[in-house]
Design goal:
Strands 1-2 form a two-stranded antiparallel ribbon. The chain is mostly helical and 369 residues long. The two termini are 39 Å apart. A hairpin with a 2-residue loop joins strand 1 and strand 2. The chain has one domain. It is 70% helix and 1% strand.
Length: 369
């Protein structure tokens, strides 16, 4: 299975070079070049899926060395970073799940549509997933300060990580909330000192206006994307989406109150974070995959994890990418609606199921205070 995952990844690289024009990476590359040239970061062309640049200015600062390279060279360097992130992610698996289950889990994740799309579009999904995996590992090992700082840094790049702040406040873990906010402020302050206020003002305006895409979000696997693909008028779709979000938050909160297990908590929060975000791209399924899989492996229903594993691979990522290449959203939208339902199925299993014990892999998660 690991060999299949490696070949799948190589195939995604070939597709990105031959058919997709390096996926979403040209936008990141253009932002880095704009920073070096002192021009506007947010007038870059949209991605292949039609989205604006929603990334913060400090990401362009980190990408600046790649902006000095040609696009092909920078893309291959970025693929190297993605490979390193996958290795770091695998190390987190090894820290929490014993072999052979750990090897199999990594192989399935590597062969999944989420990984394939992330590799082919050359985006930040794998680095985000790796950092999140280690934030969770540190949290379950009792290194809460380190975990909170990691989440705060991640929130500076993707605002949906801010969901952890009210969670920690609810848990009365004020130290984690303070450390995460402090890390977020530190990153933003550093960026402001380097590039000034204007790029950040533009970034906030872009976030407020959102993506130009409304219903045509072929790679979106969130609850919002499923609702917008239904034959409903705007007001009905909004009502269905808000009702679903309220039900999701209520069910997740009820489950969090029932189970004082850090693995269950992080699996639920990260999965709900992707589902409830209006831009829960399919490749972000890599983010909750490890803690969710670890919890689901302990469930008494032995068919749950294999079923989710199969649904994460079939239909393959090529279906999504074919739709993007042909600028025809139907194959991509159908596939990603299926992926969205798979992610929701995992969330439902986390809400409804009960692990056999708090022991997962070779280590015991630190109890929540």
């Amino acid at each position: 299975m690991l060999i299949v995952g490696v070949f799948h990844t190589a195939a995604m690289v070939w597709i990105a070079v031959s058919a997709l024009g390096y996926g979403d990476f040209p936008q990141l590359h253009d932002s880095a070049k704009a920073l070096l040239a002192g021009s506007d970061l947010y007038t870059t062309p949209p991605t292949i899926q039609g989205t604006k640049n929603l990334n913060p200015p400090h990401l362009a600062i980190l990408m600046a060395p790649l902006g000095a390279m040609s696009l092909p060279s920078a893309a291959f360097v970025m693929w190297g970073i993605i490979v390193m992130a996958a290795i770091v992610y695998a190390a987190a698996i090894g820290r929490t799940i014993s072999s052979p289950k750990g090897y199999m889990l990594f192989a399935i994740i590597l062969a999944s549509a989420a990984s394939g799309v992330a590799v082919s579009l050359i985006n930040l999904a794998w680095p985000l997933a790796a950092a999140t995996a280690w934030a969770w590992v540190w949290q379950r090992e009792g290194r809460r300060r380190r975990s909170a700082i990691a989440i705060g840094c991640l929130a500076s790049f993707k605002v949906f990580y801010l969901i952890f702040v009210p969670y920690w406040l609810w848990r009365r873990d004020f130290a984690s909330a303070i450390w995460s906010v402090a890390a977020l402020c530190a990153v933003l302050t550093t960026g402001l000192l380097i590039v000034g206020f204007a790029p950040y003002s533009e970034w906030l305006a872009v976030l407020q206006n959102g993506s130009p895409l409304l219903s045509d979000r072929p790679l979106d696997a969130s609850w919002h994307s499923v609702v917008t693909r239904l034959p409903l008028d705007h007001s009905s779709a909004l009502a269905v989406w808000l009702t679903g979000c309220a039900a999701g938050v209520a069910a997740s909160w009820r489950r969090l109150r029932q189970e004082a297990n850090v693995d269950v908590h992080w699996a639920l929060i990260l999965t709900a974070m992707i589902i409830l975000s209006p831009l829960g791209w399919v490749y972000y399924a890599l983010i909750p995959a490890l803690p969710a899989a670890l919890v689901l492996l302990r469930y008494r229903s032995s068919w749950v994890m294999p079923a989710i594993a199969v649904c994460s691979i079939v239909p393959p990522a090529a279906v999504v990418l074919t739709g993007l290449q042909m600028h025809h959203w139907i194959p991509s939208a159908i596939a990603n609606s299926f992926y969205a339902l798979t992610i929701m199925g995992a969330w439902l299993a986390l809400v409804a199921g009960r692990p056999d014990s708090l022991v997962v892999g070779d280590r015991v998660a630190q109890p929540l205070s």
